[in-house]
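Possible regression after last week's pipeline update?

I re-ran a chain I had predicted before the update to compare outputs. Posting the input and the new output here so someone can diff against the archived version. Not blocking, just want to make sure nothing changed silently.
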Amino acid sequence: MEKHIALLCFVLVGLVGASAAAAAVAGSKNGAKLVNAVYVFGDSLVDVGNNDYLPAPAPRANRPYGMDLPGKPTGRFTNSYNLADVISQRLGFDMSPKPYLSMFKHDKFLLGICKIGANYASGGSGILDTTGPGTLTMRTQLKYFKKVADNMICLPSKEEHLAGSFFLLSGGGNDFSAFDPSTASAQAYIVKMVTTYIEHIQALYDMGARMVGILDVPPIGCTPGQRAHMPDGECNEQANSLVQGFNALLRAKLAEAAAATMKELKYSIAANYNILNDMMANSLVAGLRRVKTACCGSGKLNAEVMCSHPGTMACPAAEHDDYMFWDMLHPTHATIERGVVALFYGNGPKYGEPVNFATLVTGKNEGSSALKMVVDDE
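New output (post-update):
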């Protein structure tokens, strides 16, 4: 029995960002906003500059981070727009809302009357309060949002505004980096992470959030930084196994919590893990030539130090879109663009559970079988 793997005519169309798929999901193309506002919480995958306003040891995304956004603030741990930006663009906005710590009185006034959203994310932070010293922990981010939400004056009402807004969450990767096996078992640590994460989601729900998009933890064992420490340069499967355990438990426990105490919650857990795995396994089809090596850094696989470390250099500008990873940890804008189409329109739980982002936002059954790989047994 010979197994042939055949790609559909438009296989991985979401991952390669074909123009037809992009036009189908990008509300910004015609100026239509699909949600009232976007509120962002999490880590460096979605931080757009809050860490620029924090002292050390909070990491900062200095140049060459953001080098493909001329004339715009950086603060993003990639070469151009990050996940918060591209997801916001799909929802009809120009980019992510501003970092909360950058807001002056006028911005805070607009935030208070529900005319704009805000990004509270902080690079290096985690789900747990002990992760990311010097950063805005997720709990701190929620406290900032509560301070705003408690005083919001919206038309027709604060409840309607928040219920029709999109709450984007990203967390967990840094918590695994901070895990010390001498202090707790891996299973106990994962349970603590999931329990704390659901507490955060419950807190948002209690403040009025009803539409929540969650980015699960990607295969952190396959980043260039992890590969650089492996003898064969391959993925750290032990790290990936821990992540898979967390992602599975989060899905199960959030479903239970939603049914018990958040009955009006609509949510989607986007499968960052599966999407990146698919892109690695089909990198040439996805339009990415370099999967193991970082574009910006130095040392083995160009991934032994962060991109803004003294003495580091980025790959030539013409090659930026060839790389899956910008630095030792973070994807390039090219990877993000492809991945976001998948998390919006990927069919089935492999890409989003219980629904994908497009279905979450529109209430319609949005999906594309073009993301599937067909395996024929002959």
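Follow-up from reviewer: compared with the archived run. Residues 237-261 form the longest helix (25 residues). Marking as no regression found.
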